[in-house]
């Protein structure tokens, strides 16, 4: 069996037979490689044309300063122990993103309730005016799944906060699916994550790879362990517990 690459006539595109004497049936003598056909559904793109660079927008929110700004539209996993201030810092940043874009932020709440979520914002002097709450409980009192909750978020939302990943999606498979789903959405997404007993992000290791940045909230500092637009690891001190 020949290892020579398959050729075709450059004029009539007939495939070159093994025995042809150098001539095609059409009389031409110029042969070219047969282009490789990509399987249906597979996308192969050129890297020659440059896409827009990742340009972070700077906000005064502490979480934004830790990240080196926020690239709008990307996804951030925010983890830490209970009471570290994850939701409070997400509330501060979400309020500023929504105000900056003059849009609405959507808070998917499976951890607290309306009153407790409202109380997050005054802790950092933030306003909840641009934030809308999507509760885990429906009007009839039944639980709402994360897929239905995300359907309540319009495509032009400024920002989404998922609080928390483990409460909305208990199984590892569901957590992965949730993160893969928000990755395809246009708004910036802040996903609050629990920590396990080892002091690491709870859930499968893949959770950290399914987002664009990961931030660990500690009582005295914020450590960014992954960020697609800033050098890592990076740590900033918290001026006070939030």
Automatic annotation (TrEMBL):
Superkingdom classification of source: Bacteria
Protein's recorded name: AAA+ ATPase domain-containing protein
The organism's taxonomic lineage, starting at the top: Bacteria, Pseudomonadati, Myxococcota, Polyangia, Polyangiales
InterPro entries documented for this protein: AAA+_ATPase, P-loop_NTPase
SUPFAM superfamilies for this protein: P-loop containing nucleoside triphosphate hydrolases
Coiled-coil parts of chain: none
Biological process annotations from GO: recombinational repair
Source species of the chain: Polyangium fumosum
Domain AAA+ ATPase stretches: 72-228
